Amino acid sequence: MRHTLYTIILSMLALTLHAQGPQQPDTPQQEQLPPIDAAWFKANYTKAEYMIPMRDGVRLYTAVFTPKSRGGDHPILMTRTPYGCAPYGRRSASFWEQPIFENYLRADYIIVFQDVRGRWRSEGTFVNVRPLTADKTSGGIDEATDAYDTVEWLLRKVRRHNGRVGVFGNSYSGFYALMAAASGHPAIRAVSPQAPVCDWFLGDDFHHNGAFALSDAVGFLPNFGTAGRTKPSDRPEAFNTPVEGNPVEYLMNNTVADITRALDGQIPFWEEMAAHPDYDEWWQQRSALNATHGIRSAILMVGGLFDAEDLYGTWNIYRALRQNSPEAECRIVMGPWTHGAWRGGDNANTIGHIQFTEESMSKFYRDEVEFPFFDLHLRDAGHGGASSTGALIFFSGENCWREMEGWDPEAENDTLTLHLAENGSMTASPSDISESYSFYTSDPHDPVPYYPDMAWPRRKEYMTAGQEFVDRRHDVLTFLSPRLENDITAAGAIEATIYAAISTSDADFIVKVIDVGPDGEYEMLIRGDIMRGRYRNGFSTPEAFTPGRVERITLTMPDIAHTFLAGHRIKVQIQSTWFPLFDRNPQQMIDTYTCTKEDFVPCEVKIYHDANRPSNITLRIMK
Description:
The protein is an alpha+beta fold and 623 residues long. The protein contains 13 helices and 26 strands. A hairpin with a 6-residue loop joins strand 21 and strand 22.
């Protein structure tokens, strides 16, 4: 993999990046300008509110902020959101308080916010991750047609634009940004889907490999879209949460079926989801990967290496775009960030006890990544900044950026396989022992915590937290490599191959890969993920285990970019519960959405590591 190491000392980052090309003449020198405050915004921008008609007659609330400057034509930057465009009212605005918008305001962009169909002040019916409509000629609508119709209206009705539109969105809004690119409107020149929702069964938000992400799903309930909405409103729909008392105790004492009954139809999507426990056509239609064909807009994918919500979506949409729209310019930037941290007002340079740099990573993102990308495509200004190459990836461990022509670790990297062995060790070669295994008993009534205090809401820093707090549990297996003699830079997905026999008909398998410092006191979780065992041979075709029979389970975890330094060790942990991050598997081949408390049973799990059943993890190593 060809790459340029910008710098190991991140404080030199800005100097290195500017040395790559000329200073961008149109990039504002913010420190020499008056601050953007309420008075500045009022003097320089005008707000207008519109109800823009879609092709089926439904009208969508849209707020348009137009610069008062008469000098030249202005590009349009738009985001479509299910989270509301508050504050509403023609004289109300607050987005200018967010530093992420400062460069655009200085450069006189037209800024547009829109409530998606069926949310807040927009008319129509809200559908979560609305599928693309194959036949749009017969009047079908989807999020792509809504984006197309909105852009058409803006080009006709808004004055002094330059005919170019950019679309961005983070998280759920990242899904809508991708749909805007899929609309094919010729004026949409640049799109940035950031941590976009991709597939709510395979890897984003609500499920990982079929296991239900209980903590996030329950916490996100008010945003699902409640039943009984009668008209547009700038007030959120009423929602009565079923959670009572201590949330962790509530989730421990109530099954998913109990929660469904307590919701009493408030969340139609929840009931639809429960009616489709496997990866059937209903789920497949809602995958954002369906929108990656024939894209013509320039794309900037952005995500965080330690995003607990939509890491799957960022990596997989990027791969699909490169495969399905090879002619489109597609870049990816992955930093050491949690979900959306790059857009925040803080420095975004630390997660929990891990500090990646003393410099501001959010400022770097604003000034060197996002704004230059849009400015290049919407105003022909500058050279695209730090995102001008195919891939800009931050490598934790050594704490540096690497610039690459693209991200294709499967094709370009070597592999390193570490085999689990007796006595909690790991070796480079498989064992020659004829029979060897480690075992534990998984008890859903005493699940392994994801964080020392099972914190609620879910702690974002769990993605880098040391795992010493579960080392001594009887239901967690720990394997440790020898000290590394040289640095090992891992780039790409981690593949865990587990040979297991269980005493029941189903179980979950959680694998965690951890960087352990030379003194043993420092630990950093690099990646952890879960596989619901029944889906080991396909997510659409669940299969029960035969008690006592050894089965092969393969878990492919989202990509990492991490350097394990010389003197460190690699630790792997295996367990079968991860609470309340994920729901507890009853450990029987029954529907996890409808099972009762009485269905939860203990399960003995044997993990084999012998000559014929070599359980292992495989890392992709940069050459």
